[in-house]
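Handout for the seminar on molecular recognition.
Each group receives one record of this type.
Step one: identify the two inputs.
Step two: read the structure output and locate the region that could contact S-adenosyl-L-homocysteine.
Step three: write two sentences on what you found, then compare them with the reference statements printed after the record.
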Amino acid sequence: MTDNSEQRESMVFMQLKSRGINNQRILNTFLTIPRENFVPQNMKASAYLDNALPIGYEQTISQPYVVALMTQSLNPQKNESILEIGTGSGYQAAILSNLCKKVTSYEIIPQLAKFAKENLTKTNIDNVKIKNSDGSDLKENEIFDKIIVTAATPKIPQNWIKCLKEKGSLVVPQGNIDSQVLLKYKKKDGKLELLETSIPVRFVPLKGKEGF
Ligand code: SAH
């Protein structure tokens, strides 16, 4: 096994720090999680490139900078329980798992749910629970501290707001199928309030009951 720590250092410096990711806990996490564990075998040489990569089934692992920006916006804390919609490769979940207590992540494509589980296991991560079902139609009993959505979302489903704690935040790429904006909401008096508008992004579409 080769150690890719130099590639990670360079990614953190050139792609993250230089673009304003300054939270040291987050930067340290990107230095420790091996991104090559979350891409298909034939993509390993490209794992540290400054872009999204295909993971099969017409889906992608997001660009490292976008993962970092969303993580910084979500601002995960050690004692928190976080919900992710759109597991994909499991890389975003792996990053979050190092920064909070536990992650629950929904993936609608069975093969990708399996891929992500394997990737997390080989990275020795045991505080991520992957659920293979439609994350736009949650039937959750649990109330989460924060929610992160990593698929393009047309309109926030009511079932997400329901399982978000009061004062909890939601980070989501929202817009139409071709372009979205990264938004951060906060739940106040049972409703979502827009807190931050960040950069334009292009995510794969949310599918399922409340998707595109
Ligand atoms: N966070 C991922 C990248 C997400 S790509 C990573 O770090 O690699 C978006 C993912 O959302 C895809 O895997 C897609 O299959 C999944 N997805 C799309 N609609 C969904 C839905 N309704 N419920 C759960 N997952 C969904």
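Reference statements: Strands lie at 53-56, 59-61, 81-85, 102-106, 128-131, 144-149, 164-175, 180-188, 191-201. The pocket of S-adenosyl-L-homocysteine is lined by residues 59-62, 85-86, 88-89, 91-92, 106-109, 112, 134-136, 150-151, 204, 206-208, 211 (CB under 6 Å).
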